[in-house]
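FORM 7B: Structural annotation worksheet

SECTION A. Query
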Amino acid sequence: MRIVLGVGGGIAAYKVASLLRLFTESGHDVSVIPTEASTRFVGTATWEALSGNPVTNSVFDAIPQVNHVRLGHEADLIVVAPATADIMARAASGQANDLLTTTLLMAHGPVLFAPAMHTEMWQHAATQANVDTLRRRGIHVLEPAVGRLTGSDSGPGRLPEVADIFAAAMALVEPDAMATQTLAGVRVTISAGGTREPLDPVRFLGNRSSGKQGVALAQAALAAGATVRLLAAHLDVAPPAGVEVVPVETALELRDAARAASRESDVVIMAAAVADFRPSAVSERKIKKRDDIADPTITLVRNPDILQELVQLRSETNRRQLIVGFAAETGDADADVLTYARAKLQRKGCDLLVVNHVGPNRVFGQDTTAVVILAASGSEPQEATGTKKDVSTVIINRIVDELRSVPPRHQPDQEP
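SECTION B. Predicted structure
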């Protein structure tokens, strides 16, 4: 397979030598196109030695071969790593001022960007708009990793792990991977983790959710070929490379993010553990524990029912959209877990409800789980047990089956 590896001008360029080695050791023919700035970090001699091919970044080299046309035409895959803010801005605006950007304009195969930059640069509105533009054009843009950056700074903007970039790249072109792309072309939004409702600048009301199930669902949906957006509340595990991450903290923030995302989603999976209540007032200062004042009384107000609102929004826009809810239930003297879950399914109006029986050392924070999938259609309950990765595969496969019976549409139904 012919791969073009574009290298951007960032300190993370040195890591890309390991990515090049993974490509070549897998038997692929790699042409490296470093930007002029990137050669200040890693020289062309390194890329030539590791790739076994001549390296240039000028459109005026190899004129008889018309490199700026040939490379893009012949490439089965183009990977840009690190994809700097500058490269993505130039690619989004269609510039063609060096060999890499001209090659990107000529690309016939899939294109993958692996961003790396400082946190403020990644989060800047201009960069986010460019990323959105590239994704809407079908270019795959990974989410940067969270961690140590240049100097003492830390945050989102670190180059994804080389193994993750390699896996994401191969998933775009390997025949075996493509054969399992049962959700190709489907846009999936997944919420994960636990929301946190602030009491003061220090304290919050939260829950025991680790986010492991939601992250596993994102991985399973991504493996099935879906375009995945992860609405990430508090997570104890890192989001998978290749998904768009929207960070949220409170139930109200999750509500806004979910309503916005649902308008362009074919499938919505609400796996986050959302706080049912929040403090009616948030103190601007830390609440003190003092002997000369009474203990505080905290008044709670009910948070909106996000899942129910998404079902209503679907009805208002007449969308063919699959909505999946999660329910963490405990039984009591009045009814068992499934009785409460069936009532919740009817009340919420979603298509599928994934039910967990929670308790001490069960579900929250664990690597294994047991669920029952209930359907609004009234079909027999489906059980799944095992690791959260295993259960996520079962859930995604069930979603695929549901979509086959009612295909999604990207736009609301129109009158003929």
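SECTION C. Observations
The chain has 14 helices and 19 strands. The chain has two domains: 2-179, 187-287+295-405.

SECTION D. Sign-off
Analyst initials: ____
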